[in-house]
Amino acid sequence: MNLRKTSIGLALGLLVAHAAQAETLRVAIGTQDTTINCVTGGALIRELKLLEKYLPRDGRYKDVRYDIQWKNFTSGAPLTNEMVAGKLDIGSMADFPGSFNGAAFLKAGKRSLFISVLSGSTAGSGNGIVVPKASPVQSLSELKGRTISVPFASTAHGMLIRAIARQGWDPARDVHIVTQSPEVAGSALQANKIDAHADFVPFAELFPYRGFARKIYDGSQANAPTMHGSLVDAEYARKYPEIVVAFLRAAIEADRLLAAEPEKYSELVARVTGIEAEVIYLFHGPLGLQTRDFTWKPEYREAVKTSISTLRQLKRTEAELDAERFIDDRYIRAAFRLEGLDYDKQLGNYAQSPLAGIDSRSGEPIGDSRRVAQVWVKDEPRVRHYASARSALADLNDLERAGRQVRVVYVQDSRSGIKLLAGDAWFVHDGDAVHGFLLKQDAESWARTHGGRVLGFDALKTASYASGGRDPVERSASARQE
What we know:
Layout: H1 2-21, E1 24-31, H2 43-48, H3 50-54, E2 65-72, H4 76-84, E3 90-94, H5 95-107, E4 112-121, E5 128-132, E6 147-150, H6 155-166, E7 176-179, H7 182-190, E8 196-199, H8 203-209, E9 213-218, E10 226-233, H9 234-239, H10 241-260, H11 262-273, H12 277-284, E11 291-292, H13 298-313, H14 323-326, H15 330-338, H16 343-347, E12 373-377, E13 384-386, H17 389-401, E14 406-412, E15 419-421, E16 426-429, E17 434-437, H18 440-450, E18 453-456, H19 457-466, H20 472-481
Parallel strand pairs: 1-2, 1-3, 6-7, 6-8
Antiparallel strand pairs: 3-10, 4-10, 4-11, 5-8, 5-9, 12-13, 12-14, 14-15, 16-17, 16-18
Helix pairs in contact: 4-5, 5-13, 10-11, 10-15, 11-12
């Protein structure tokens, strides 16, 4: 018996000694949960425990213990501070704060690497300018001499500077630009204390959705590519490249899940962030406002170069950051290979997240993406898709007459193709179709060229109700026949 106890004691001792010798590796990740373009590099990986699935467990990592740490931030600057201080290994942010991250590392005698895109728009959608809901202002051109707030040194700040330049204005004289965080700006808009506010994802859509602002400018009008992506401490990546690749593989799986069930995961992200699921779906659903894309397209490389030069112009950095050395696609290419994906093929793919299927009302195939509309009905797990705003409007009338509650209606801008909240869009009813637009001036231009009436969403619905449940187009057609 004593011999058996001795054997057990020796075995336990060896196990304890082995455990004491096992290496513990930290994987410390900074996220921006409310910046919903970062969800596939943060919130979804964390909430679904996807990183644990891909972390290496063999070879040099056979006996490793992982200390996975997550920390959430509301902006990129404090995240960068903790990365530079060695408290975080990986972080996700937009092109401007990402470039500031690279510059801050250089200033500290270190390096960071921009290793992957997560989501973005080669045209610039995502950044935008809003005004108070009751403001008479309909376009940027009406803001000369007015006060515009923006989070300084953000990607939205860069967009605002370029948008002002396109107007031929001097940003130092023709407008008054002040710094405000999204949280402060939301209150200022509600109190009518500022004329306009420029911001990044998702606030130019979130504030209008919450009913106290209107979007009057989309970043695509400045044709200024924008993106969010992930960065890593270069020394950490050198030591543990397999861990970095594991993180990116987890991001790729998060993307697959989100693409397959955007409503389900929009609801999950909403619970985590407090950002309404309807706004998250606006970005991450099919034909979303931005495209999830992990590849370093030339436009995204250019966005980083532009952000570096603009930060110097704004005197936010003096670092000589080399974008070509800063951007490193080796890790995302490795992740693609391990997932059986073709990086170079995706590099050439500029398509929006696809929407396939048939019209929920008419059964006709969904074709032209610029005519598509969508309705999210309360208590329905899936968003309804329509081949045209005309079909969606007819179904909306029937739903509301039946007492069903509708969470949100989406339409695509007939000119730019970007996704819009229908409640804040402008429409042209030309007798044959209903066309949606972000800007009133675009709707008016379309009407002058093609004919038709310019209507707000409520007026369009009222006209539809007056038709006895048929949409205005059907009513007009009947009137012509009579």
